Amino acid sequence: MEITRRVFAFLLVLCAPLVLFSSAESPRKSAAKGYLVYVGTYTTKTQSKGIYAFQFDAATGKMTAPELAAESPDPSFVAVHPDGKHLYAVNEAGKDSMVSAFALDAASGKLTLLNRLPALGEDPCYISFDHSGKFVLIANYSSGNVAVFPILPDGKLGEHTAVVQDSGALGPNKERQDAPHAHWIEPSAHNRFVYVADLGLDRVLIYKFDAAKGTLTPGEKSGPANPGDPFSATLNPGTGPRHVAFSRDGNYMYVLGELRSNVTVFKNDARETFRQMQQISALPARFSGRNDAAEIAIHPSGRFLYTSNRGHESIAVFAIEPKTGALTLLANVPTGGKEPRHFAMDPTGHYLLAENQFSENIVEFRIDLTTGKLTATGEVLQVPSPVCVAFLVKR
Q1: Of 105, 255, 228, 81, whose CA–CA distance to 153 is shortest?
Q2: Phi then psi dihedrals of residue 81, to 5 deg
Q3: 297: which strand partners?
Q4: Is 237 strand, coil or helix?
Q5: pLDDT in tens, 146-195
Q6: Cys-Cys crosslink for 40: which of 201, 256, 337, 388, Cβ 3.0 to 4.6 Å?
Q7: What is the DSSP annotation of 50-87?
Q8: Which residues of the chain fall short of a pLDDT of 70?
Q9: What is the C-alpha end-to-end distance of the chain, expressed in Å?
Q10: Is 7 in a helix, a strand, or coil?
Q11: Cα(178)–Cα(198) distance, rounded to whole angstroms?
């Protein structure tokens, strides 16, 4: 019996390092089955060199140290193509602004530049795809126009198929609404229209989209009383629409007002005609300091909506009433940094990553799937001037 105990003890000591090694390896194995995350940044007057990448483990919330995926000038907004093989970015540089196409190596996370074309406008700040995946859509902020580029079979960008100048009556904020300022662009659910949030016009403009040709044309007019009025959802003067989120059924549109730090809820009555039904602040009732709202997104469950506040430095958490689409503000959660320009939820809906531009970090929060509540996990990444993140599902 004594010999048996000694042999067992010897084997236990011998195997212990293997058990510890296996335990230490498990996060890496899990991360390999998780996601790659790409980070768009500002490079001018910062330490950033371009687009960064890190691994995210959806099971544990662990994030690896970010590494440079590609050098690129001021890639302020990035988007991973649905094919998982390409990434596209806008390069925000005034009159020298560009749009870039990259080949994506999912094994290493590295990006290889395929080509780069002029953005056909100044300071592009948003990039997306139509639902066929054949076209790139960009919004040029300073010049107030939008452009469409075809994606060629090799992933490169082809010559533009559309450039449209936003137009309409300007908002009352003389400093920020001095001209049209396109800030966001996305296609409708059926790919028949393209929506453009224009901060200068207090409108979400609606353009007809030809998915075969990649062309944009002004939508229907609002009626005989305003024959020159563009087809749009109109917000209250001085709202300054920045980004937009849609309910999963498409019945409700949620517009984030950068200048008023609020969310305007629209009901889609018919034929892309939106009726304003609610406005709600994204700030606590007693807050009176400077604030610029930045990002808006709906949880994958459809039950909660989140926005970010730059100045108050928080994520606002809203509950969505399922029958009416109305919002109720539940909480304002500090982001653990300064200037949360953007945030994103992982595809499983368990975590939210907030990018704090001025404190140069990405702070992770766990999402309570029952209440929508955010709790900081303690996971924080240091990234120079982060302003956008995009997830890639590893295949």
Answers
A1: 81
A2: -70, 150
A3: 306
A4: coil
A5: 999 999 999 999 999 999 999 999 999 999 999 999 999 999 999 999 99
A6: 388
A7: EEEEEEE-TTT--BPPPEEEEE-S-EEEEEE-TTSSEE
A8: 1-33, 220-229, 271, 394-395
A9: 52
A10: helix
A11: 12
